[in-house]
Amino acid sequence: MKNLFLSLVLLFISSLAYAQDITGKWMTEDGEAVVEIYQSGDKLNGKIVWLKNANDTNGKPLIDHENPDKSKRTRTLIGLLMLMDFKQNNAKWEGGKIYDPSEGKTYKCSIWLEKGKLKVRGYIGMFYQTQTWTRKTDG
Asked: Residue limits of the DUF2147 domain (predicted)?
């Protein structure tokens, strides 16, 4: 009986840990991109792995043309680091940044799971905007 109880407790704890796992691929709220979130040491990062419109009108891959650092303006958007340096704080991942390549701006950001969806909140001072991203399950 004691072993059964211990097994059930461990199963419950492992299911909670799995439910809080935000690594993997996530479709952005507008459906224009998929970002893969991955562990890097004790932090989480995320890179763009798919774009609905990945090429310009000439068929060339889209680049980071709005980046304030001129030396980075030739980087392709596919593979671009978009979420950086998140550390877990209870049920949230905080202290990170999100880069918006359409504006070339970086914002403070926090992310967390809510009802199976990823909440992504970017901050400008005391103002914020929250998006809801959906887990990609098909590659």
From this structure: 24-135
